[in-house]
Amino acid sequence: MVGHQRGDSVGSDYGALVGIDGLTYADLPAPVGLSRWLELLRDHTPGYSAQPYQQLAAVYRAAGHDSEVRDILMAQRRDQIDRGGLRRRDRTWARFTGLALGFGYQPWRVLLLLFAVLAGSVALAVVLGGPSGGLEHTARASTPTTPCSVVQRVGVGLDLGLPVVKTGAADLCAPTGTRAGQTLTVAGWLLQLAAWASATLFIAGFTGAVRKT
C-alpha cells in the first residue's frame, strides 16, 4: 500500500486502530507530516511492529533526510519499550540509553553529563581545597605542606573530572588528612567513576553499539 493513501484515510478517522504490519511506502507520506504519521504508528495500531518504522526510515533515508531517519528510529525504540514486550532489565537499560544517548542516535547528550561532572569536580576542588584545608602541596612542590593556589586547585579538579587527559596538578597538590581532604578524596573516586562511565557511554553511542532496531 502507498503511504500517502493510507495517511489520507487516517486523517479522517483519528480514533481508529489500523493494522499496518507489512505496509510499504512508494514515497514520503503526504499530506500527513512525519510527526502525525509517527503518532499513527504508535497510538493507532493494535500493537508494536518494527516493519512499518523500518520501511518508513528507509524511504526517508533514500530521500536524504537523515534527521528524520533518526526521529523515526528513536520513535520506534520508544514504542518497542512501551509495547514491545521487553524484559524488565532490557526495558530499564533501553530507557537509560534513551535518556543518556537518544538510543545511540544522539550521543552528544552524555557529553552534558561529562561537562557537569567536570564542573562539579572543579568546584569541589576549589571550595574544599581552599580555606577548609583539603589540599596542600606535596613533597614534590617547592613549598611542601603549604596551601595550594586557586590555579592548582582548578587543575586538581580537572584531573578528577577528566577520564583520560591529566594536567599533572595532582602531583604537586594532594588531599590532606583533614575532613575536607577526605571528603575530596572520596568525591574524587566517585567523580572519576562518573567521568569514565560518561566517556564509555559516549563512545558506545558514537559507534552505534547501543542502537537496537
Tell me about this structure.
The structure is a single chain. The chain is mainly alpha-helical. It is built from 9 helices and 2 strands. A two-stranded antiparallel sheet has the order 1-2. Helix 4 runs antiparallel to helix 5.
Strand fraction band?
under 5%
What overall geometry do the principal axes of the alpha carbons give?
elongated
Whole-angstrom Rg: 26 Å
Uncertain spans, ≥5 residues at pLDDT below 50? 1-14
Which strands sit side by side, in order, in the main sheet?
A: 1-2
User: What profile does the largest beta sheet have?
Assistant: 2 strands, antiparallel
Mean pLDDT: 83
Element pattern in H and E: HHHHHHEHHEH
Quickly list its features.
9 helices, single chain, elongated, about 210 residues, disordered N terminus, two-stranded antiparallel ribbon, mainly alpha
Topology, element by element:
Layout: H1 3-11, H2 34-43, H3 50-62, H4 66-83, H5 88-101, H6 108-128, E1 135-137, H7 150-161, H8 169-172, E2 173-175, H9 179-206
Helix pairs in contact: 3-4, 4-5, 6-7, 6-9
Condensed summary:
With 213 residues, this protein is mostly helical. The protein is 61% helix and 3% strand.
